[in-house]
Amino acid sequence: MKVVEINDVSKTYHDTEVEVKAVNGVTLSFEKGDFAVVVGPSGSGKTTLLNLIGGLDQPTGGEIIVAGHRLSELRPSELIDFRMEHVGFVFQSYNLIPVLTAEENVGFIMNLQKWPKEKRKARTDELLLSVGLSDRHKSRPSQLSGGQQQRVAVARALAPRPEFILADEPTANLDSKSAETLLDIMEKLNREEQMTFIFSTHDIRVMKRARRVITLEDGRVVSDERTNGAG
Amino acid sequence: MITSIAWKNVWRNKTRSFTVIAAVTIGVFAGVFSMAAINSSIVQRINAAVNEELSHIQVNNKDFRSSGDIRDIISDPSAVISTLEKTAGVTAVTGRIIVRGIASTSAGSTGVEITGIDTEKEKQMFTIDRKLIPGTGSYFGSDTKFNTAFIGEKLARELNIIRYILTSEALSGLETAGVPLTVIEKLRSLEGQRFTTEKKFSAAYSELLSAKELKKYGLKIKEAGWSYREGSRIILTFLDMNNNQTGAAFRICGIYRTNNDLFESLTVFVPASELRQLTGIGEGQFHRIIARLEEDDLTNDVTPVIREALPGYEVMNWKEIQPDLAMIADYINQIYAVFMVLILAALAFGIVNTMLMAVLERTRELGMLAAIGMNRRRVFMMIMLESIFLSIVGGVAGMAVSGIVIAITGHTGINLVKYSEGMEAFGYSAHLYPSIGAEFFVTLTILIVVTGIVSAIYPARKALKLNPVEALRGE
Questions:
Q1: Are B150 and B193 in the same domain?
Q2: Number of domains composing chain B
Q3: Would you say residue B27 lies in a domain?
Q4: Is the residue at B214 inside a domain?
Q5: pLDDT per residue over B125-136, tens digit each?
Q6: Are residues B108 and B124 in the same domain?
Q7: Which of B372, B374, B464, B472 is the best mutation test for A, with the most CBs of A within 10 A?
Q8: Chain B contact for A60, CB < 8 A?
Q9: CB contact under 8 A, A80 and B8
Q10: A146: exposed, middle or buried (Cβ count in 10 Å: 0-12, 13-18, 19+)
Q11: Mean pLDDT throughout B86-100?
Q12: Is residue B124 located within the same domain as residue B250?
């Protein structure tokens, strides 16, 4: 089942003097349960592509359909709701809410969606257990290591059961051990919950685990390979 | 959830939040306390004017105030008194005979207004009898065959009725009052010497003391040296009903002290009966008939009623007699408003500055919140709530501090005796008892919250304009 369809999508930035084509005629689709990475050198358009898929940015050409929604047809306020309902984000710098505890961070989006308290708590407990932080419910981000914070961020992204997770360089700030642990967790969630993961990365460890590697250069897809995810 | 995050956000940068809260607290305190002090000063002045000098409404012969002629008496005093007594809101009525003249002693003379009063009725309408300086006699208390006068302290000084002598008792009193023996020893050379004026006395002891001693004990020494010669007499001269000069010696029965130097130096109270004998003014005749009302607030309503009932007379209320005071009384709300605007403007600048800093510092976080699905309304609400919490905490702290300080100083008073000469020349007390109505606190609380909301609009709009992609790129 297709979760994301990208048809001839372009994104052009108009700088003061030059026109920059960050994404140039990309056509791709992602299936439910994909564990895909988008790789390429700096400036190749990886982050821009993820932003377009996540509805954070609008393409200047082409069409993106996510879970049956044509993103170009959504108003800004509808795009915010769309992101909350369908997309989970994991950022390079964790971006947890510093004043909230781990469980409050995980429950944040469910709270915005007005989940009942018991249901929200059960989901939070389940996710913190699966990311190996069942003993850190009450810890603030400042009391957690980088790896632990990123695991909380993954749990937060997964909490409202989105269609897919977009993870922009999720291991870039982590040491090897933390990165491997995080990847183990994400692989497990992908396997057990059939959760779709789309990464952008430079990290060879992520590439090795991926079952699909899409390479971008100058905003174009130069290869799209399916692998075994040898990790 | 948004409320909880907003509250926690207020405390994430404790130093900055405490600085802003401290600034708001100090600002609110300064404003409220100044207002309370000004308010008390005005209220005390109005009370003094109404209770000691003017009462609420005065009825005069039409020409009397401008001419000052002793013959311009009220033509039908019984009718006037009867009309006033029947008027709703009037609680007491009394008549006065007022004669302009000269008060003199061997030391000098000065112009005065000799006010012949019904001493018992006046006690019901005025508080001047309670302004008697202890040790100076009484308010027309003792039966005497002499004419008696109740005069102000300022006049007593001008006529050298008050003198300054450091007696051995006075020096012992200073020791009890905590003045060091070394200082008392220095003052011994002045023991028993008489000084006719305060100026001469203070010049004498100032020469003996260091500047520090003078600053610390000067006031106590001056008070200790204050001496009144009991049974002193003044000569009052004036014109009688036939325009002939007349006069008599009056024994001073007591000296009163108010906060109004001008009133003290001008007004000499004597029993109306004594003045009638000397001037030839008939029994039951007056220059002025005064009415006291149940409440100050009735003044504006009752005045036109009396004016209409007594068309042939000059009817004036205290606000018309002292328009400067009336203006202050009437404009006190505007004065409140100016102070409130100043307090709230300072608060608004503090809040806008802090919240702008908070928004700019948290660009990435706000971008992330927008990215994961926090809509514009919730972001706006969060920033607004943070601002409101900051305002409320600072405002409430400021009002709590103000409330406590006002309660304490309202009880103990603030002694501005250093500036008493300047203040009392205008009739204002040098002892302030700050007070402010509860409604001022309620209004200020509401306005502080409103200011917090208004101040947050600009920073909150700034947060709404953030583009999530650009905000996240900020990392």
A1: no
A2: 3
A3: yes
A4: yes
A5: 999 999 998 878
A6: yes
A7: B372
A8: no
A9: no
A10: middle
A11: 94
A12: yes
**Are residues B153 and B168 located together in one domain of the fold?**
no
- Establish if B39 belongs to a structural domain: yes
Contact list in B for residue A77 (CB cut-off 8 A) is 375-376
pLDDT in the model for residue B475: 45
Range of the domain at B41: 2-48+325-473
* Mean pLDDT computed over A191-195: 86
**pLDDT tens digit sequence for B360-374:** 888 888 888 988 888
- Whether residue B318 lies inside any domain: the answer is no
B475: nearest CA partner in chain A: A93
- Are B446 and B330 in the same domain? yes
Secondary structure of residue B35 in the 3-state scheme: helix
Render pLDDT for B321-351 as a digit per residue (tens, 0 to 9). 988 887 877 777 787 788 788 878 888 888 8
Q: Considering only CA atoms, which of B42, B14, B2, B3 is closest in space to residue B354?
A: B14
- Indicate the burial class of B313 (C-beta count within 10 angstroms; 0-12, 13-18, 19 or more): buried
Co-location of B458 and B344 in the same domain = yes
Q: Locate tokens 């997770």: which residue?
A: A165
Annotate B125-163 with b (16+ C-beta within 10 A) or e (fewer).
bbebbebbbeebbebbeeeeeebbbbbbbbbbbbbbbbb
Given CB atoms, is A98 within the 8 Å cutoff of chain B?
yes
Nearest C-alpha of chain B: how many angstroms from A80? 5
Partners of B9 on chain A (C-beta within 8 Å) are 99
**CA nearest A48 in B: which residue?**
B469
Whether residue B147 is found in the same domain as residue B41: no
Q: What is the pTM of this model?
A: 0.69
